[in-house]
């Protein structure tokens, strides 16, 4: 039971982390390599909230707003001029991630910091004492997935975003403000990354390189998933589950590269990943 819960909750955490990256990739067609930096920003929002004596729960909206505002500025002044040159946009976001990491180091230092768990203690699950916070992370992933399903299917923004995904030129001809849609999408993606950073802090330490460890796994999961949140959930469950099993029964070191290796094999056999299946 413990292994099953580890697989499910770890997959949920991966889904939360990768959602912001897929949001931007689905509409803008670029990989935001500053994603790890936004995760770190979220983590330090949690640290700052705790150090000021405020409720740890307040870090969630703070991180989303901070990530969203920084995302708007990034899209407007760095990414927007590079839409026609996606490779340059990738390099620009990679460089931005390095700059953000250095700024965080200057402000907070290199020391490893920790934040209290939003939900401490354990819960009895079929006779197994299991972390209440990891179960909360599973619930958060479900809520996030359902929220995005509603956003994409039941709102004007979602319908507009889907139109841009399918054919941006036609969407522009039909009168949609594609520039605004891109900006809002980037804002939501970076805001979600900041939110994910807060949710990660009870599970890991906070330091200026905190997001780097999650960037590669998120990137590979998005490449396998394509542009669908449903296939992203499947990819997180399968590849994240394999990572947990390998880490538990073989080696944590090998477990750390399991997602990257399996994703590379999947993309070798099916270049479009699960979206082609």
TrEMBL record:
The chain crosses the membrane at residues 12-34, 54-74, 86-109, 129-152, 181-200, 212-239, 246-267. It is found in: Cell membrane. GO terms for cellular component: plasma membrane. One of its GO terms (molecular function) is transmembrane transporter activity. Keywords: Amino-acid transport, Cell membrane, Membrane, Transmembrane, Transmembrane helix, Transport. It is a multi-pass membrane protein. One of its GO terms (biological process) is amino acid transport. InterPro entries: ABC_transp_permease (IPR001851), BCAA_transport_permease (IPR052157). Belongs to the binding-protein-dependent transport system permease family. LivHM subfamily. This is Branched-chain amino acid ABC transporter permease.
């Amino acid at each position: 039971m413990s292994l099953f819960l580890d697989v499910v909750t770890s997959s949920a955490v991966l889904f939360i982390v990768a959602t912001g990256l897929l949001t931007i990739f689905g509409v803008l067609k670029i990989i935001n390599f500053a994603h790890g930096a936004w995760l770190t920003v979220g983590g330090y929002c949690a640290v700052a909230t705790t150090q000021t004596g405020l409720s740890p729960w307040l870090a969630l909206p703070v991180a989303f707003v901070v990530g969203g505002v920084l995302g708007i500025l990034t899209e407007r002044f760095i990414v927007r001029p590079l839409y026609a040159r996606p490779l340059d946009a990738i390099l620009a976001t990679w460089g931005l991630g390095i700059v953000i990491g250095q700024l965080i180091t200057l402000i907070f230092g290199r020391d490893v910091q920790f934040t209290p768990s939003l939900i401490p203690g354990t819960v009895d699950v079929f006779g197994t004492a299991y972390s209440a916070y990891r179960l909360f992370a599973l619930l958060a992933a479900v809520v996030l997935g359902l929220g995005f399903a509603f956003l994409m299917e039941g709102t004007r923004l979602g319908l507009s975003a889907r139109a841009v995904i399918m054919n941006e030129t036609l969407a522009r001809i039909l009168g949609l403000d594609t520039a605004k849609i891109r900006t809002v999408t980037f804002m939501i993606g970076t805001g979600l990354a900041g939110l994910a950073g807060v949710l990660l802090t009870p599970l890991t330490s906070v330091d200026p390189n905190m997001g780097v460890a999650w960037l590669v796994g998120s990137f590979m999961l998005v490449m396998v998933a394509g542009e669908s949140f449903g296939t992203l959930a499947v990819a997180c469950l399968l590849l994240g589950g394999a990572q947990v099993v390998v880490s538990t029964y073989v080696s944590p070191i090998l477990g750390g590269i399991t997602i990257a290796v399996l994703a590379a094999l999947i993309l070798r056999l099916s270049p479009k990943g699960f979206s082609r299946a």
